[in-house]
């Protein structure tokens, strides 16, 4: 179709090193998972990302100086106006709901028992989205997607556009990447 634009891939920028922030600011991605830095620099980082039109999700277990309780999540919401949090902790997901924040519950698919436990936890905590780590597992993505009514994000070990497309075809809604070439 002449003049039509190709839809961009649903990529989430995973900022794991401070030097990636500038690339995220200039990127075409709409969402950023912040997994670096500390609470002393968080206000400037979030403000600059918001000014660049990005939604900012903060990983509560990876940004230094943030506690892992409901007060920490409320503080992120009120003080920094983040758009959401990422956590492996069910209590942080519940605190996000109470604070009006969106939530991503991160799970590690290391074996069948871990996946079954994660599905039960997700059923209880009801996060807005679920991130499966590592992301290069099409069958696992299909199986998890079939057992829950939540958008699925996959991340970890994904390096090529072919792998991105394969995970999307398997049922992932978004792919979270630290490789700035894909942002």
Layout of secondary structure:
Layout: E1 11-15, H1 21-26, E2 31-34, H2 42-51, E3 55-59, H3 70-80, E4 84-87, H4 90-98, E5 102-108, H5 112-125, E6 129-133, H6 138-147, E7 152-155, H7 161-170, E8 174-177
Parallel strand pairs: 1-2, 1-8, 2-3, 3-4, 4-5, 5-6, 6-7, 7-8
Number of DSSP helical runs? 7
* Strand-residue proportion: 15-25%
The helical percent reads 25-40%
Question: What is the level 1 CATH name?
Answer: Alpha Beta
Mean pLDDT over all positions: 94
The protein's oligomeric status is single chain
| Low-pLDDT ranges | none
* Amino- and carboxy-terminal Cα gap: 25 Å
Biggest β-sheet: count, sense, barrel? Answer: 8 strands, parallel, barrel
- CATH architecture term: Alpha-Beta Barrel
Indicate the radius of gyration in whole angstroms. 16 Å
In CATH terms, what is the fold-level topology?
TIM Barrel
Order of helices and strands: EHEHEHEHEHEHEHE
Task: Explain this structure.
The protein is of the alpha/beta class. It has a single domain, classed as Aldolase class I (TIM Barrel, Alpha-Beta Barrel), CATH 3.20.20.70. Helices cover 38% and strands 21% of the residues. It has seven helices and eight strands, in the order βαβαβαβαβαβαβαβ. It has helices at residues 21-26, 42-51, 70-80, 90-98, 112-125, 138-147, 161-170, and strands spanning 11-15, 31-34, 55-59, 84-87, 102-108, 129-133, 152-155, 174-177. The chain has an eight-stranded parallel β-barrel, surrounded by five helices. Strand 7 (152-155), helix 7 and strand 8 (174-177) form a beta-alpha-beta unit. 35% of the residues are buried.
């Amino acid at each position: 179709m002449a003049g039509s634009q190709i839809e961009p891939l649903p990529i989430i920028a995973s900022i794991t090193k401070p030097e990636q922030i500038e690339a995220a600011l200039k990127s075409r991605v709409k969402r950023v998972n912040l997994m670096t830095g500390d609470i002393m620099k968080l206000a400037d980082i979030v403000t600059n990302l918001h000014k660049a039109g990005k939604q900012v999700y903060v990983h509560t277990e990876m940004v230094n100086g943030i506690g892992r309780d409901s007060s920490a999540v409320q503080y992120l919401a009120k003080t920094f106006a983040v758009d959401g949090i990422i956590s492996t902790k069910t209590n942080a997901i519940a605190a996000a709901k109470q604070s009006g924040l969106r939530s991503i519950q991160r799970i590690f698919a290391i074996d069948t028992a871990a996946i079954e436990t994660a599905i039960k936890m997700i059923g209880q905590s009801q996060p807005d989205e679920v991130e499966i780590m590592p992301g290069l597992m099409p069958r696992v993505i299909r199986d998890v997607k079939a057992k829950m009514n939540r958008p699925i994000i996959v991340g970890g070990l994904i390096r090529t556009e072919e792998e991105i497309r394969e995970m999307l075809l398997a049922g992932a809604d978004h792919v979270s990447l630290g490789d700035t070439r894909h942002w």
